[in-house]
């Protein structure tokens, strides 16, 4: 668990340091993934953003709904004509509901890691659209010993404050 705290501290310090150097931005985003809704809140700059996100993975291994909630560092490339590529690295908790009160989670630096790549188009100073392909681990058995990998494709609208 100490690794998890260290990684969170590094992500936070990178984002706060970047905000001190550049003009900061804050945003709220909502959208849809291939299997359900996604929501996020972000703070940072045009390049470095610390984001809290929630992504529904849909039904995995048959009829078991899964959801990811976590903290990510989003690195945006320098925008060219209001478009930029992005990379996401984060960690969090994926919960799979197996029904009858049984659920399993994958948490932490080893099991709860999210990777993502995508692109973002900024329409104006307050609106942007983003699409991403993410890689997320989830629990594939009620005891949490088996895991699977989901690749949700997301499309989101961002309102920038």
Which key features would you list for this structure?
single chain; Porin; elongated; Outer membrane protein beta-barrel domain-containing protein; mainly beta; 2 helices; OMP/PagP_B-barrel; 161 residues; eight-stranded antiparallel beta barrel
Task: Kindly summarize this structure in a few lines.
The protein is mainly β and 161 residues long. It is built from 2 helices and 10 strands, in the order H-E-E-E-E-E-E-H-E-E-E-E. An 8-stranded antiparallel beta barrel has the order 1-2-3-4-5-7-8-10.
In terms of topology, how is this protein built?
Layout lengths: L1 H20 L3 E9 L2 E9 L3 E13 L3 E13 L6 E17 L2 E6 H4 L1 E10 L4 E13 L7 E4 L2 E8 L1
Antiparallel strand pairs: 1-2, 1-10, 2-3, 3-4, 4-5, 5-6, 5-7, 7-8, 8-9, 8-10
Protein name: Outer membrane protein beta-barrel domain-containing protein
InterPro entries: OMP/PagP_B-barrel
Organism: mine drainage metagenome
């Amino acid at each position: 668990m100490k690794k998890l705290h260290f990684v969170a501290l590094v992500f936070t310090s990178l984002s706060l340091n970047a905000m001190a150097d550049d003009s900061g931005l804050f945003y709220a985003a909502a959208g849809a993934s291939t299997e359900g809704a996604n929501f996020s809140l972000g703070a940072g700059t045009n390049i470095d953003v610390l984001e809290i996100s929630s992504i529904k993975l849909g039904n995995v291994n048959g009829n078991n709904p899964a959801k990811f909630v976590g903290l990510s560092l989003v690195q945006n490339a320098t925008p060219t004509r209001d478009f930029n590529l992005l990379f996401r690295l984060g960690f969090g908790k994926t919960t799979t509901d197996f029904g009858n009160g049984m659920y399993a989670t994958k948490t932490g630096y080893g099991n709860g890691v999210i990777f993502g790549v995508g692109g973002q188009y900024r329409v104006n100073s307050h609106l942007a659209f983003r699409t991403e392909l993410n890689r997320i681990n989830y629990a594939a058995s009620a005891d949490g010993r088996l895991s699977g990998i989901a690749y949700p494709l997301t499309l989101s609208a961002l309102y920038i404050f």
